[in-house]
User: What shape does this take?
Amino acid sequence: LPLSIPASDIRKLAIIMVGLPARGKSFIARHVARYMAWRGHSTRIFNVGNYRRVMYGSDKPHTFFDPKNPEAAAARKMCARKALEDMTQWLTSEGDSIQIAIYDATNSTKERRAWLKKACDELGVRSMFIESVCRDHRIVDANVRATKIFSPDYVGKDPEQAISDFLHRIKWYEESYEEIEEDDTSYVKIIDVGKKVVVNNVYGYLPTRVVFFCMNMRVSARPIYITRHGQSEYNALGKIGGNSGLTELGKQYAQNLSKFLHDDILRSHPHLSIWTSTLRRTIQTAKAIGRPFLQWGSLDEIEAGEANGMTYEEMAQKLPHDFEERKRNKLCYRYPRGESYQDLILRLDPVVMELQRQEHAVLVVAHQAVLRVLFAYLTERPHHECPNLNIPLHTVIKLTPMAYGCEVKYYPLDDNIPATASMDHGK
Amino acid sequence: LPLSIPASDIRKLAIIMVGLPARGKSFIARHVARYMAWRGHSTRIFNVGNYRRVMYGSDKPHTFFDPKNPEAAAARKMCARKALEDMTQWLTSEGDSIQIAIYDATNSTKERRAWLKKACDELGVRSMFIESVCRDHRIVDANVRATKIFSPDYVGKDPEQAISDFLHRIKWYEESYEEIEEDDTSYVKIIDVGKKVVVNNVYGYLPTRVVFFCMNMRVSARPIYITRHGQSEYNALGKIGGNSGLTELGKQYAQNLSKFLHDDILRSHPHLSIWTSTLRRTIQTAKAIGRPFLQWGSLDEIEAGEANGMTYEEMAQKLPHDFEERKRNKLCYRYPRGESYQDLILRLDPVVMELQRQEHAVLVVAHQAVLRVLFAYLTERPHHECPNLNIPLHTVIKLTPMAYGCEVKYYPLDDNIPATASMDHGK
Ligand SMILES: Nc1ncnc2c1ncn2[C@@H]1O[C@H](COP(=O)(O)OP(=O)(O)OP(=O)(O)O)[C@@H](O)[C@H]1O
Ligand SMILES: Nc1ncnc2c1ncn2[C@@H]1O[C@H](COP(=O)(O)OP(=O)(O)OP(=O)(O)O)[C@@H](O)[C@H]1O
Ligand SMILES: [Mg+2]
Ligand SMILES: [Mg+2]
Assistant: This one.
């Protein structure tokens, strides 16, 4: 990445989740992991619940979580130890490169946390706790009802029985739960889904990014709509970059998009915000909708530098070395005096933060490379796939975040567009 | 600014400082104000202490701050009211544009804070409190000794008497101090210079930026060194942009810079980090030093787009409209397919955050426009002056943050460089 992290800064980070069951620990863990992986860091989650299911089966009743049940307690400690072992091993497996491990379990006692911190200290790995606390009990109830009946622990069980069992499980943990207040450790405490956040002893580049991300995280499931601008003159000529206006086909798409928004989207999402880049083709596209929109320089297309205005054929002729290099490693390839996909990821970081923060639906009218990067983030695609994702022209893509994952729907709004027109930057 | 803030988001923000005397309230206020002003927002501090000095004189002994002294309490309330009035008036004076007011006083009781919040609510202005708390008393002692003897309240006084009087003043405030814990208000509580931070009920783009900035703020006075690359081939030809290497003169500067670092700077700052852009001329310059350095795309020179590779004379001929436009408003002027200074400010925001976070000295080897933007931030120059600041070639500038302001020292390392060579991008 263009911003390498100073050698003196933290390169190995163990994030340790803390909290009673159904506080969103796994939700937060997955979101942090997705964000860090998207930024290009090696990231892995170690979920102790999964170890338990593999090692002891997934059909354990709530009494398995009774701290006064010594056999079960020993079994659960064994899972914790195995997960820690694997984490330790993984964190020492990739030499000096940046690695972020997330240890996902309740870790609800001081003792357990001291044990984990000690293991990290001995390894020379920075540890940082993320605790989720709900003072408002309605949040927990809603979480249990919304997610726990689908847990692998309750496959084939009656939902009401599952809920009742899970609430018992929570009770067992409550007996020994100690909120984190260890002043000498790094921690973030997220109270009532971020209404209040306490940050203690957090220093360093990576930990600071994680905290900032957590502070911007929302759980509401508002959709994000993305679309490329209508066909531009450069699209039609197969030229890279530029700042051309829309063709007749492109203008027609702007009309279709407007109709689609007014007929469909705006009814259910009257507070929808519209964001464009600062280039003519996205502005022209959004203008047709007849609503205010934000122009955002961070959403401008990948800068093609010296290849700007060329067709790919010309680029192959005039910049043959570049052309080959780009084919070989499109993620890292940087246009001469232009940008790479990795540059684009850093440039789009504030956009991603803003998308996280939004409480209402958003429509992003932008460009193929830019939307690939956003799409990769939202749908959690592996880093290296990002430059080859297909973002067809004249199509709205609806992305709805789910508790785990993201629903993707395509709305092609034009039958006439030649298939090749969706291929610029796509080769 | 390219990122306009959604119309629905907060456009008027009143930041209200909270804390006992000598907790760094004015320090934080000035830093937040500087950052927001640099981003281009209209920002003003209302310091109640200044109102007191103007309205009642600056020679008041500590008994003036005794809450049981009714006359003095009434006088102090009068100052608070006058400052609030002025703030209210200012916040309604610039129509719909973004405005950030900072109300700097102890505001150490619940009652006082409720009074201020109510005034903001009635005005339709979002209020947000920033409290500084020191649990570690050594911090306060050091602050009093370092800054209060220079306070306008103690001009001509014996330092030991000043300190003793000020410590008495603190005692009076301590009698009625109530830490902020009002759950229904927006606040950031900074404990022990950021060791711990509590963020409550903070939503919206501007408040989130303020919080993130506060979390990255350091008070250590490590210097920041900035220098442009050595003279490049394009510099010598008077051409804009490009990615040329160093001339012989430029290479000589790289040597001089290296010598200067090893002979002078590195002795007192052995942990110095070196940052460059990703362009050849800064990399070549930094390489001569023989220490590891970070390449950072955000530090690349302003993108001149279609004017790239032209001389200013050519630009005047080929892009006459642009040439005039740039002369007229260099801050907002955006090169066709390139960037404006305002774009640059947004691009450099993460760099500024990183600079804030650093505990050790940093040397930034970059470019004229980029360094202008950083220099403007560090020395608190008005937004509109930024594009015309003079950053001479072949000169190291040392910037040392002081409690209030920044010390600037120039180290020209080359007698031979023709004066005009420092003029690219400078016209
Ligand atoms: N900060 C948060 N506080 C409370 N709930 C949250 C938070 N973030 C996400 N959630 C919600 O939590 C639910 C998911 O719960 P999740 O499975 O992540 O809990 P968990 O703490 O991992 O539980 P368990 O201990 O059983 O593994 C989702 O419905 C999500 O909306
Ligand atoms: N978060 C902080 N906590 C404690 N001290 C700080 C903090 N930030 C800056 N300082 C230090 O505080 C000192 C400046 O004090 P400052 O005048 O700003 O205090 P104040 O709270 O405004 O006092 P007063 O109530 O007298 O106006 C500086 O020396 C600075 O290093
Ligand atoms: Mg879980
Ligand atoms: Mg002050």
Observations:
- Chain B has 14 helices and twelve strands.
- Residues 376 and 385 of chain B are 8 Å apart (CA to CA).
